[in-house]
Amino acid sequence: MKHITFLGDYTPEESSSILRTFDDYLQKTNDISISYIYLNRAFTTTIDTWLEMITSQEVDIVRNERALFQFADEKYFEDLSEIVDEKKIIPSQKKFCLKGRRILFLPDSLDGLVLFYNKQILKESGVKEDFDTWDSFINALQKIKKSSKNIIPFALHNLKTLKGWWAYYLFQPFLAQGGFNYSQENLSKQLESKEAEKAFKFLGELVKDKLLGVLDEKKYQSRSSVAFAKGDAAFMLEGPWAISSITEYNPKLLENIGVTILKDAKKSTLVGGRYFAIPKSSNNKQAAKNFLKIMMEKDGYFDNISTAGKIPGYSAQKPLLPIPKEIFRLFSLYGELEVIKMEYQTMMDEIGNKIGERLRTYLS
Length: 364
Hints:
There is one protein chain. By secondary structure, this protein is α/β, with parallel strands linked by helices. 39% of the residues lie in helices and 15% in strands. It has 15 helices and 14 strands. The strands form 4 sheets. The chain has a 5-stranded mixed sheet. A 5-stranded mixed sheet has the order 10-9-11-8-12. The longest helix has 16 residues, at 348-363. The radius of gyration is 21 Å and the shape is globular. It starts with a strand and ends with a helix.
């Protein structure tokens, strides 16, 4: 029996359920066993540590964020052309997954933040669905604020507890719009700069003007997706996983969801999702390929990936959640948009913590 080692970014708690999922596929073969290694999804490790892990000859399948793969030389990965059907890769992902005639990465699910909006609230507030610039977005928030005291124009998370990688993603477009296009290098000094002060003031004023609503922890669990799902917020910046909250709290809302991106945004938070790959250093390449082939079979992993509100990067024929077509369409396109290029001089958790602290200091 061949034993393969899987390197992923699920939390230790999540990995037990993932391994149970793997067991379902392992039952289809008698010659493969599997173990799991956890890599912190928030990247509190370095790119060098990750590369060391995937070249150690101990890892046979990798499943991580695009942000890590884009820093790894293609020489590290095995060609998957013999098992992956190029036609089933969502078009926006082909440029990243294919290197010449070789297929190096198998897209798992598409990730990233887009602007969700409640069509019914916009209609009642006299806002047309033609906003695609930052100014038109702010104007829409102002109209909603004036038309209803009970609606949160844009649902923002609880600033008291916001920290880590989520703060990094959530605030990056707002701070960039305020004039602070920070980089990871020498971040501490940048956060004390005039540009940073101006950007935090810009964001703070949006909160003070109640265009961005800080959420009540008890009522909304400090989650924008819960406020949006309950019909109490017009906009939120979220990923496809928010669909699961909407399905839980207010499934009828799925009929009134719109999604968009702002064309003139100065910084994108789109990160590209997760991918599978087989390291060239693996001693069990064929067993790893056989396992991925099982996952790609009819009614397998990829056919059922939508159960968590995820957008599949590889052809899925059976989404189990009623994800609106608009969301499928947007996420199938966004791979060609700007993707954050992270230098990893400092990690996202550290950056997010500093941003959270700095913003709370300003608002106090």
